[in-house]
Design brief:
Strand content: 15-25%
Oligomer: single chain
Helix content: 25-40%
């Protein structure tokens, strides 16, 4: 996990950009200025601690990358590269593969990555992994093309103005995340998940997209339940095994849910080193708290379990840092405990495995079950229901599934195309990288997706249960996880914590310039006073975010301007 930045065919250096990303690479920064390119890399050392520095040169080419290529060992063996390698870096085999196959080599990668590769053939490429686990942003300059791991690199280097596009801001209030490739900052674009771009003369000249999911109907799984459970076991174990490749300490974030319990079960089985697990619980009356369930799993698996508590004081003290970290904004309240977990894990761990992606691939959400019911039983489409219809139409356009999918697969596809990369994975990346941690997601693996997505619907959703097959497997693999117990869900009691300061915030929020572009001061105050967390929280986050990222206010002062002295 690192930060990368560069300028291709331009006239400026990437050094000011990478200086904004040193939190992503606390182990050191290297900048290389060469004809036609300025490349910069801030390193968090994970694999080959001594030899893995970038920019990395091999086979006549150059690469800088963020993330991990998990199958570098298998690729080295398959193509007989061992004698050609000068380092143990997971990125060096990519350069040798590119020499052999050109851009076709990119489709062999199994991992989470964003990289810039300049080949011996003189061609330049930018690429992002198919699920969009690792971020990559681009910006066209007067001369050249700039790219970076986060938008703040463009802002802090003075390449992009601190201005706001209104449509993404409205999406943020409607969905808690923004849609598509165009970010909230004018001129700053995300590479789409799986996008592979060729750059020539400072402009993108071609694009292709590598899908995270198998083509409809191409690969159907067998329908015998016991055979599927055995196959699931093998597929998940293999994914966790390669996700544990690391030369530094790793562990996991353990909730009381199915997905992280599955990851914990397999980490404990493989047990290449003692498994450390961190769990966050909420100190608030009536808050949903799964620490008890997480502790039962940890004890059953003999994990080194660490309990982290999150209360009202944490909410207000950490909120400015969270808003500052989320330069590409998501108003998901789960950012708050994720941020505190990362702070607690720092110093003990460098790599953290998590359960993101299990719901999307195996059919875990209640909205999927509702989508399968007839209307007379309360069924409805698995889509958001914002008050403003314009963001919903944009969401539908991005979420539109290819033909040949079942209703359940269409709902899964929509989430994988929208909120997974732009909410859940953005949250994970920014909150962990703010503390110099690498987050890994074993469910979001090409082999897991190839197994899970084509499963017949009945092995995902059955009755009131989602993730049917994962539950059946976990029933035998880790009974302590209680896979058939009713899931409490992950709800942060932000409404209760905002309420005591609602009047103070309501009196000030209309003074924020970005808020006034979207609504009147009276409407903003009414949303804060409403007591509805779904209205008050996104607006509070957006106002704080805008003060920090658009008006360049210091985080603590931004919160004081909104809520008074805490």
């Amino acid at each position: 996990m690192c930060g990368i930045a560069g300028v291709l065919d331009g006239e400026v250096s990437a050094r000011p950009m990478i200086e904004a990303l040193t939190h992503r690479g606390p182990d050191g920064v290297r900048v290389e200025d060469r004809p036609g390119a300025s490349l910069a890399h801030a390193r968090l050392s994970i694999i080959d601690l001594e030899g893995g520095w970038q920019p990395l040169h091999a086979a006549g080419g150059t690469v800088i990358g963020n993330g991990e290529i998990y199958n570098y060992v298998e690729l080295t063996e398959q193509f007989g590269l061992a004698g050609d390698l000068a380092t143990g870096s997971d990125f060096e085999p990519l350069l040798h593969l590119y020499e052999k196959e050109g851009p076709a080599a990119f489709r062999r990668l199994r991992g989470m990555y964003a990289f810039c590769l300049i080949g011996a053939d003189g061609r330049t490429w930018l690429a992002r992994d198919p699920f969009g686990i690792k971020p990559l942003y681009v910006m066209e300059l007067e001369t050249g093309l700039a790219f970076a791991s986060q938008p703040r690199a463009f802002l802090d280097a003075g390449l992009a103005p601190r201005e706001m596009r209104e449509a993404p801001a409205r999406e943020l209030l409607a969905f808690s995340y923004t849609l598509g490739e165009e970010t909230i900052f004018p001129g700053v674009r995300r590479l789409a998940p799986g996008e592979i771009c060729e750059v020539a003369d400072g402009r993108i000249v071609s694009r292709q997209v590598r899908s995270a999911l198998p083509a409809p109907g191409v690969r159907r799984a067998p329908t015998d339940e016991q055979a599927l459970i055995g196959r699931l076991d093998a597929v998940l174990e293999d994914s966790v095994r390669v996700h544990q490749r690391s030369d530094v300490p790793y562990g996991l974030f353990l909730s009381g849910g199915i997905d992280s319990a599955a990851v914990a079960t397999l980490m404990a089985r493989l047990k290449e080193r003692p498994v450390t697990a961190f769990t966050c619980g909420f100190e608030a009356p009536g808050a949903r708290d799964e620490r008890g369930q997480a502790e039962r799993v940890a004890r059953a698996l003999d994990l080194d379990w660490r309990e982290i508590r999150f209360g009202e004081e944490d909410f207000w003290s950490l909120l400015p840092g969270v808003a500052a970290a989320l330069d590409d904004p998501t108003a998901d309240y789960a950012t708050l405990p994720t941020y505190k977990l990362a702070a607690a894990a720092r110093g003990t761990l460098t790599v953290v495995l998590t359960g993101e992606g299990g719901d999307e691939l195996f059919g875990g959400y209640g909205r999927y079950r509702r989508a399968l019911r007839p209307a007379w039983l309360g069924g409805r489409a698995a889509e958001p229901r914002p008050d403003d219809p314009a963001p919903l139409e944009r969401w539908r356009a991005q979420a539109k599934a290819p033909p040949g999918l079942t209703r359940l697969q269409q709902a899964q596809y929509a989430d994988i195309a929208t909120w997974l990369p732009n909410d859940l994975l953005t949250k994970l990346d920014r909150c962990l990288m703010a503390h110099g941690l690498e987050g890994r997601t074993p469910f979001l693996d090409p082999e897991v997706a190839a197994f899970a997505f084509p499963l017949p619907d009945r092995f995902k959703v059955r009755g009131r249960y989602g993730k049917w097959l994962v539950r059946k497997w976990l029933e035998g693999a880790c009974p302590a996880a209680e896979p058939w117990a009713r899931k409490q869900g992950f709800t942060v009691p932000v409404g209760a914590w905002v309420a005591p300061r609602a009047e103070a915030i309501a009196a000030r929020i209309g003074d924020v310039a970005a808020v006034r572009r979207l609504m009147s001061a009276e409407a903003a105050a009414a949303a804060i006073r409403s007591g509805e967390a779904s209205k008050a929280w996104p607006l509070l986050f957006f106002a704080l975010w805008s003060l920090i990222h658009l008006e360049d206010a210091a985080p603590a002062q931004a919160l004081e301007a909104l809520a008074g002295t805490i």
